[in-house]
Design goal:
CATH superfamily of the largest domain: Periplasmic binding protein-like II
Number of helices: 10
Distance between the termini: 51 Å
CATH topology of the largest domain: D-Maltodextrin-Binding Protein, domain 2
Length: 296
Amino acid sequence: MTIIQLEYLLAVANFGSFSIAAEHCFVTQPSLSMQIKALEEELGVVLLDRSKKPVIPTEAGEAVLVQVREALKEYNSVKEVVQQLKGEMSGRLRLGVIPTIAPYLLHKFIPKFVKSYPKVELEVREMKTEHIIEALNHDKVDVAIVAGGTCGDTITEYDLFDDRFYAYVSPLSPLHNKANIRMEDIDMRELILLSEGHCMRDQVLELCQARSRMPMHYNFESGSIDTLMRIVDCTTSMTIIPQMAVEYVPEARRSQVKMLFKGASSRKISLAIRRTYVKRSLVDALKTTILECVAR
């Protein structure tokens, strides 16, 4: 049994494909298949059900993979410990970010992070929460910036800061003259939301529990907060936006931003990693950089 065999097995389990796993491991598919077959023969069990598409672990394979993940975590941590002792910060860091955070946060910390850690190769992908969870669990991204409490039991979240919700109302809305808005003031028929799959949509619906029972004036959904605000500008509707978007509202439109009165009218912004993840020093560096830039 070798580390290479364990890495190949985990790659196939993560990607559900021998060909994709081979590409990910920079090896030919026959070589990868041969190594996994040798591992199975040594252990005396079949680890992967090759008849399924995608390929899935057998019952024995699932049990073995639990130990494989822990073994690889400890093995890879040796390199990280040595790098820390040598004062080095290097490697590849694959970052996922949800769309309701990316436009308002990435540009604040990426330049500083890249300058501070020039040997780190940073890859950034904008993804919905469900895709981030899948990517974290299958080793397609290393770390993600998400709304806290949305990733499930297999993911560890580290809170960064609170992001309050605000109402963004049309100049033609009766609510435009209010300085602050209570949830019960909102005509749910006038509320437009992000499209399904965005966790912020679910958080807003939780705040507005009556909405599902109300007929709507507008059946408009978008994946972009900025698009929703443009629709609000030219209709009588309203939407909910995060605090991090408020600073990008033009001065001429600032009167349309209204504070919401409700105890749960905010979200946590968090860093998410899978529980067997190793590159703690890179994650800590990323976390520190984000907090420093947000504080400014």
